[in-house]
Amino acid sequence: MFENIVIIVVLLIFLYLLMMGQYISSLLLTVGILGIFLLGGLELLNGFIQSEPFNRTASYALTTIPLYILMAQFIMQAGIVKDLYGLFYRLSRGRRSVLSVLTIVLGGLLGGVSGSGTATSAALGQIAVPELKRRGYPDNLAGTIAASAGSLSSIIPPSIFLIIYGVVAQISIGQLFTAAIIPGILLVIVFSLTTIAYLQVYKKRMEITTGTNETAATIEDEHTPVSRYVVVVLAGTLMMAAIFGGIYTGFFTPTEAGAVGAFIALILALLLRKVNKAFIKESFSETVKVTVMAMFIVIGASLFGRFISLSLVPRKIIDLLGPLMETPLLVLAIIMLIYFFLFMFIEGVAVILMTVPIISPMLDTMNIDPLWFGIMLTVVCTLGMLTPPVGISVYVVGGVSNIPIERLFPTSMVYAAVAMFFVIGTLLVFPELVTWLPSQMK
Question: pLDDT class for 212, splitting at 50, 70, 90?
Answer without folding.
Answer: very low
